[in-house]
Specification:
Strand content of chain A: over 45%
Order of helices and strands of chain B: EEEEEEEEEEE
Number of helices of chain B: 0
Radius of gyration of chain B: 13 Å
Largest sheet of chain B: 6 strands, mixed
Structural class of chain B: mainly beta
Largest sheet of chain A: 7 strands, mixed
Radius of gyration of chain A: 13 Å
Helix content of chain A: under 10%
Structural class of chain A: mainly beta
Shape of chain B: globular
Oligomer: heterodimer
Shape of chain A: globular
Largest interface: A-B, 28 and 25 residues
Number of helices of chain A: 0
Distance between the termini of chain B: 38 Å
Distance between the termini of chain A: 36 Å
């Protein structure tokens, strides 16, 4: 079955460490996204990528970095510069940015906690 | 400035009754709207959408109404079931019809048996 896989489901980070969250999709989708969910804040866009080797900052990109070396993969690194990294991170993908086909498919998320 | 607003953080409804979730938007250029449903510790799933050329779209127990003059849309669930208990997000593409989705803060629906 096609889908989008995030790993790990739970992740603990010590202060000052960088951590990388994995996101893989086998839907042949062009675009991929990273969102962050905080209580009462909804979903906020961190980074997005429309094609391989290209990505754009979203609304809250500071302290994060991404790469898009393969169409299927869009890992997110939470760096030590991110002051409040504890949150639920969601990866999504979509077929195209053109037209009105906004079939975002979301992964099941990664809960990151700073200890 | 929040362009998609869900002003009710929570809603409680009795099983079998109607649930009405509201969403307001500020950008008159939005031409497409979506509702997503999210269970705890899971990713959101697409529920229903509506184009700005329509004022209503129905899919089974779910109906979305759009009032462009008021910049308001609502999601009706009839009849509500306990399995509908989840957080519902309203979303719209910004930056034109090819833009990325911007989400509201969500409304947590609780359907009591």
């Amino acid at each position: 079955d096609g889908g989008i896989t995030q790993s790990p489901k739970y992740l603990f980070r010590k202060e000052g460490q960088n951590v990388t969250l994995s996101c893989e999709q086998n839907l042949n989708h062009d675009a991929m996204y990273w969102y962050r969910q905080d209580p009462g804040q909804g979903l906020r866009l961190i980074y997005y990528s429309q094609i391989v080797n290209d990505f754009q900052k979203g609304d809250i990109a500071e302290g994060y970095s991404v790469s898009r070396e393969k169409k299927e993969s869009f890992p997110l690194t939470v760096t030590s510069a991110q002051k409040n990294p504890t949150a639920f991170y969601l990866c999504a993908s979509s077929m195209t940015r053109t037209g009105t086909n906004y079939g975002y498919t979301f992964g099941s998320g990664t809960r990151l906690t700073v200890v | 400035d929040q362009q998609v607003k869900q002003n009710s953080p929570s809603l409680s409804v009795q099983e079998g009754r109607i649930s009405i979730l509201n969403c307001d938007y500020t950008n008159s250029m939005f031409d497409y709207f979506l509702w997503y449903k999210k269970y705890p510790a899971e990713g959101p799933t697409f529920l229903i959408s509506i184009s700005s050329i329509k004022d209503k779209n129905e899919d089974g127990r779910f109906t979305v109404f759009l009032n462009k003059s008021a910049k308001h849309l609502s999601l009706h669930i009839v009849p509500s079931q306990p399995g509908d208990s989840a957080v519902y997000f309203c979303a719209a593409p910004y930056g034109g019809s090819q833009g990325n989705l911007i989400f509201g803060k969500g409304t947590k629906l609780s359907v009591k048996p």
